[in-house]
Amino acid sequence: MRGRINLVAAAFALTALSYGLARFAYGLLLPQIRQDLSLDAAGAGWIGGGAFAAYCLGIVFALMAGARLGERLLAVLAGLTATSGLALVAVASSGWNLGLAMALAGLSTGLTSPPLAAAVGRCLDEVARPKANGAINAGTAAGIILSGVAVMVSAGAWRELYALFAGIGAAVTVWLWFALPAPSRDRTSAVPSVADLRRPGVVGLCASAFLMGAASTAIWTFGANILRDGMGFADNRIALAWIVLGAAGLAGATTGLLTLRFGIGPVHLSALFAMALALIGLGAASLAPVLAFGVMGLFGAAYIVSSGAFLLWGIGLFSDRPDFGLGLPFLMVALGQTAGAPLFGTVLDAAGSWTALGAFAAIMGSAAVWSPQHGARRAENRPRGVGQTPAGDAAALPEQRHVERLIGDQGD
């Protein structure tokens, strides 16, 4: 029992490090970074997009090499890349240096989730897994809160903050080595096949995740910039808004419970529409800036719940490969963010925040066209992946039946 708690706690810490600090703290600190390094909005967007592109590469590597390296080594590698990237940001002297450092930090986020999902699948029973995955996913919110608090007490010293974050990363990396399980000797190196991507529901999962990721960059990359330039927020008020976003995001720890009660489909749709409303609200908040805090909180809660719903949706489609079931939607979210960050920056420069936020709210709403109503199918009716065995199918059935109960037969 103690070992399982230690596993979830260490996984929560790695998620906070790689997502909250290495990935999303960039948006919070961007106004100060832009001023010091003389970056325009488009350049800042390309740097953010580069970090998301590195995230994509990290996920692909984790899915392909995870079976050979094992969960512990891959998670430690995620911690090392996050720590290195954060340290390099602290000493960046130009946009090019910053871009390379952020790409390395972004790589860590791609390496993070697949081994954690696989470790949870190995060490926890089917009832505990959705709750554990939801709690681990909420680590992003904890990292955001930490970055917000740090900014409030640091008086704009972004380089010192990144150095502090790198120190935290080193400690988390050591913890991971002792908390995650050693590689299993009978582990098979199944590689996802093209046939896996033809499973019913996969196209909808990928399309929805891509559009959600693209639209989310409006706040993750440029939210702090809009608060400063459009509403006149000082750094401490921006940090407070970020803390509100992160604190509300802790509600994502309840995603497993929400899907047990209502099903993945309704939770997924509600979260997408809430984020679309938040983007519209951020534009309207220029008329009443106090609304910005409520808008940021709404977005934070909805984003973490949405990513948790994608996680469970993917695992429902790939219960025989939980790491791939998690990695695929997260990869598509990252691809969307790779495209969305520079696009939003370009529209923001050309047409202003109202137009950019309205357009990206529409993109967010369009992600609701696809929902996991028909996503669950029995493993025996699915094409087998390379290296998958009948015994592997049998082992996957309990987890699959549990996720099928979450999804239900809402559209049947």
TrEMBL record:
Segments forming domain Major facilitator superfamily (MFS) profile: 4-379
Coiled coil as UniProt keyword: no
The protein's name in its UniProt record: Major facilitator superfamily (MFS) profile domain-containing protein
Highest taxon listed in the record's lineage: Bacteria
Pfam families: MFS_1
GO cellular component annotations of the record: plasma membrane
Major subcellular site: membrane
GO molecular function: transmembrane transporter activity
Subcellular location: Cell membrane
Cited InterPro entries: MFS (IPR011701), MFS_dom (IPR020846), MFS_Efflux_Transporters (IPR050189), MFS_trans_sf (IPR036259)
Stretches that traverse the bilayer: 46-66, 73-92, 98-120, 132-155, 161-180, 201-227, 239-260, 272-292, 298-318, 325-345, 351-370
Keywords: Cell membrane, Membrane, Transmembrane, Transmembrane helix
Membrane topology according to the record: Multi-pass membrane protein
UniProt organism field: Skermanella stibiiresistens SB22
Hydrolase recorded as keyword: no
